[in-house]
Structures are given as structure tokens and as C-alpha cells.
Amino acid sequence: MKIFSEIFIVLLFTPFMLHANVMNSNNRKQKDKPRIVVLTDIAPGNIEPDDMESMIRLLVHSDLFEIEALIATSGWNNSGGDYPREWMDSLLVCLSAYEKDLPNLMKRSGQTSFLSLEEEEKSQKIGYWPSSVYLRSRTMSGSQGLGFARIGSNNDSEGSDYIIRLLQENDNRPLWILAWGGANTLAQAVWKMQQQYSETQWKGMMEKLRVYTITDQDVGWGERNNHLISSHYWLRKECGKSLRFIWDESAWLTQNEIGSKNWNEYAKHIQGHGHLGRIYPKNKWGVEGDTPSFLHVMPMGLNDPSVFDHVGWGGFFQWGLSADGETSCYTNIDPEVKRISRKYEEYFYPAIFNNFAARMDWAKDGKGNRNPVVYINKNSQPDIIDLAAKAGKKLVINASKSYDPDGDVLLYKWWVLPEAGTYKKSVALENADADRVTVTVPGDLGRETIHLILEVTDTGTPALTAYRRIVITVR
Is the pTM higher than 0.85? Predict the structure, then answer.
């Protein structure tokens, strides 16, 4: 299995950033990055390499995320005991390697300098590579223990207090908490907010919150099926549907499984590429099981992460009863939902890997392939596009202004994603492999929606793809 060139990969459109003013070559002002907080039970590679692998992948995509905090906290890796504080050194090792690779990574977008630390802390635009100084200033310790029994006045940490501070900021963007280990640090923050603020105030702060958990790791490995003692259970029970809580039980397993089966590709295209590649550890149980959490949030035009059944690189989720049998959340635990999620996880996996491999080329050589820039009509932003059409009429959608920053030939693929739309019958597409597609809008389309996906793939090495999603409704 070669580097996955035949299946379409992706990213977005940060081709030429002119320096720290964060404008691209078309002089378009870039959008704000999505805000993320990572809760990681990162460990030395000889103990459990999984989190370090995912951290390295996150760092070579850090031009796409506003990394608000990297918080070392409890999880499965500490086998039911408290998180060993010395394991945080693994985070610092990753940041040191990132710092050494930054001069090469910045060449990908033409960035030649950094914002001041004060400016970096305000907001960052898509395409901006954060300084290592900024990332170190956002690296801290969280809750060291497991389970909701630890929540309370003796469980405060720098990480839990910092989450409260982030939720208080005058910033309307969602704050994504990505739990690579347990979410005890987040639960402590919510508990403290309840003690310090009125119900209206703390629930108002919670409106910004989004949570993506890689299974439920707030219990010891030996008690991994005893969800009722987890702080995740407490969060869902306490907050109900007002907490946008994703419990993934599919994407992380797919990533681990396929990554392990294809480890030779990681050894060839990831390990040894740049300073980050030199510290990328050999897998033990799986490969990068935590990576789907930030793939779900990645701003690529494929999905709106706050719409959980859109289907994207991080999986597919629906509101339903969780595995604890008592609380509900957005999850893929149900067998049919998991089947759908797995189908797309397998479909997108080659694209996801190619995207990683191309960025590791930049870390190593300061050059490599870049993703196409996709235009729908005159729109090149990665937002979801809503189009109103007349039932029974033909709708032409034009992507001919799309281009490749490296001058590669572009290949087009348009397809309907039925699980995300509400119209379940077939939809006729003409010229689905051209830069203009003609959609025959069904005559019986009422209030339903049709989700049309465009993949634009270049002919570079590795082949990279950019996506757009068009939601069609009746005018």
C-alpha cells in the first residue's frame, strides 16, 4: 500500500500567508481559527506512545487551530493511579521538536515572523503558525486523579481554573475540549463554576463549550466499563442536552486499527521527517487513537463541527443513549450509527494520512505539496454553503475558479452524502467528475435538505484534496 495517492485527501486553503499580518496571496482576510483545549494523559513513548503520536500530528497542523491549552491530566495511561507529573516532560519534548521544525513549517504559508505574545493570546487566523513561546505558556497540569469522586474543593488545578478563564473571555467562538484521556479537569471546572456563579451565569458560560471525548477514560483501565463512577457521567447527568458532548466509540478504534495494519507507512513517511518525525514513537497498541478529536474540528469545508451528524474526518454522531445506560449525548455507540461512522472513517483515512505525510515533508525539507484552493462560484471560504433552488429544476454549481498553489492538475469529484441530509432518495448529478456539476433538484423535495460534497484533488505527491459542502434546499 503506497502513500495513499489514489483516494482524495484534504486540508484547507492556506497557500500563501504573507507574514504575521495573516493575509493570503489573494489579499483575503483569513478566518479565525477554531479554539481547542487538549486534555492529554501523555506518557513517555516506551510506556504508551499513542498521545505523543497524536500530539506530533496536531503540532504540524497547528496553523489551523488556536491551541488555547495543552493540559496534562489523568487517563487510562496511568492505570488507575494518579497521573505522574514527570510525564509532562513528553509534552515539552514535542514542543522543543516543533520549535526546531518551525522555520520549515512556516515556509508552507510564507510566514516570516510571529505576532507578539500579547497578540497571539488574543486570536489567531487560519494559516498562522503559533510560536513555541506561546505554546509553552499554554502548557500546564490538570487533575491528577480519576472519577467524579475526586471532584470538589481539593481537586482544583491550573488546568481547571484556566478552562474557566477561557470560558469567561469575550470570545464568541466555541471552546472545544478534546479529551485524549479523562475529562476530570473539565468536570472540576464545571463544578467550580456552579459554586461561584448563579445558574444563569454558569449555564451561559457553558453555551460556548463543546466536548469531544475519546471513549471514557476517567476510570482505571480495569474498570473501563464502570461508567457510573466517571466524571463524564457526572457531566452528562448534571448538564443534560445543554452540554454538547461527543462520546466517540468508533473513530478512535478505526484509527488505531488501520494505523497499526499500515505501520510501515508511518515508518516511511512520518518517522525521521524533521525533528518531530525523529521523536515520533513506534506504536504499541494502536496508532494515534486520539487524533480523531481534532480532525472533527479541523476547518476544511467538509463539516461544521457543531453539527454532529454532518460526517467528517472525526466520525459521525447522533444524539442517543450512552453506554452508561442512563445519560444521553452525541455518540456512535448504537450499532447502526457506528456502521455509518466506520464507513466514512475508512473512506477518509487515506486522505487523512496523506495530509499528515505532506506536512511532515514540510517539517523535514521546508517544501512539499499543498492543498488545492476550492471556489464555489466566487466563494473560497471553508464555510458550509447553503443554496436555495427550485424543485424539479436543474442547478449548476461552478467550481472552475479552484486552483492549486503548486500548479498541479486538479481532479473533481461531486457526491451526495445521504446520512447528513434529510432527503433520502437518489439525486441525479451530471458531470460529477468536472469542475461544474449539474444537480437535478427532485420535484418532490419539500423541506428536506440535500448535502452535496465536492472533493478537489491535486496530482502532487502525496495527492492532496480540499473539500466543500453545499446544502441544497427548496426556494
Answer: yes
